[in-house]
């Protein structure tokens, strides 16, 4: 449990600290190999995605819709608002006879600066079988609300852990 401002973890070779990410966040193109698995099936694979990087959060990956197999994306009820990216719509992710309800989201008309992710799909790692980046299985960001993808490439501490509400 943290109180006050956290102390960033040490950064090793080939790593980046989420405490060096900006606020407001930035979006950057990525050539990482990214996979999403639901129901024991790989429903998405790409080497063309975008990472949204925000202070204290592990990256959130946005995949182009063509990365998903046919039938893997199904519109879901509800929406939410991000102060940085605008209004999000939700998707159920479908694979292997399993439905991961509202496990994906996208911005049809993102705000200025985030236009490149228009229509691209982000995935909540905790809601699917697994997400994989460059052959490493992603660890979901804690908190149940956040969609960050934790790999050995990033160090925290990460927002979402107990005591991090005010970060």
Folded structure, characterized:
The protein has 167 residues and is an all-beta fold. It has one domain (16-155): Domain of unknown function (DUF427) (Metal Binding Protein, Guanine Nucleotide Exchange Factor, Chain A), CATH 2.170.150. 0% of the residues lie in helices and 43% in strands. The chain has strands spanning 16-17, 26-30, 34-38, 41-46, 49-53, 60-63, 73-82, 86-95, 98-106, 121-123, 130-133, 136-137, 139-140, 149-150, 154-155. It has a seven-stranded antiparallel beta sheet with strand order 2-5-6-10-9-8-7, with no helix packed on it. Strands 4-3-11-12 form a four-stranded antiparallel beta sheet, with no helix packed on it. The protein has a two-stranded parallel sheet with strand order 1-15. A hairpin with an 8-residue loop joins strand 13 (139-140) and strand 14. The chain is globular, with a radius of gyration of 15 Å. The two termini are 13 Å apart. It comes from Pedococcus aerophilus.
